[in-house]
Amino acid sequence: NRDFYTKTDPKSVETREKFVEYVTNMFKLLGDDAGAAQSNAATVMKIQTALAEASLTPVELRNPDNRYNKVTVDAAIAAMPDFSLAEYMSARSVPKVPDMNFAQPKFFGAVNSMAKSVSLGDWKTYLRWMTVNAAAQFLPK
User: Fold this and answer.
1) CA-wise closest residue to 102 among 56, 45, 52, 44
2) Distance between CA atoms of residues 108 and 76, nearest Å
């Protein structure tokens, strides 16, 4: 939810601070020392905030016209020259189709820009977080 990362009221700020603490603790459980865990949590927050800022607001998402942007797959690939969309789709076993819903063009533009501007190390940190976060429900307490 975009609002989680963009709202500035005290409760939202506190919630984000607690989220960063949680992410830090998860990195510690993965074996990172305290300094690396804090740095990695800050990286995760920075990337997620950038992605959120490029996303539609909850109000904008209510309008289906804002979420439906049919384009050819070739046009989507061309719109993201710095992100290997064709390779990504192949790796995800997306069937070959002529068209797709480019649901949030601004978001995909941000992903494209970030593919070039975010360091490989930061992407590895972010993907490490995404992996552990997805698996967290299966980990022992």
Assistant:
1) 56
2) 9
Query: Which of 77-106 are b and which e, b meaning 16 or more Cβ less than 10 Å from the residue's Cβ?
Result: beebeebebeeebeeeeeeeeeebebebee
pLDDT tens digits, 96-138:
999 999 999 999 999 999 999 999 999 999 999 999 999 988 8
The beta strand positions in the chain, using DSSP E, are 70-72, 99-101
Beta-carbon contacts of 57 under 8 Å, excluding residues fewer than 6 positions away, are 2, 3
Secondary structure (3-state) at 39: helix
Strand, coil or helix: 72: strand
pTM: 0.89
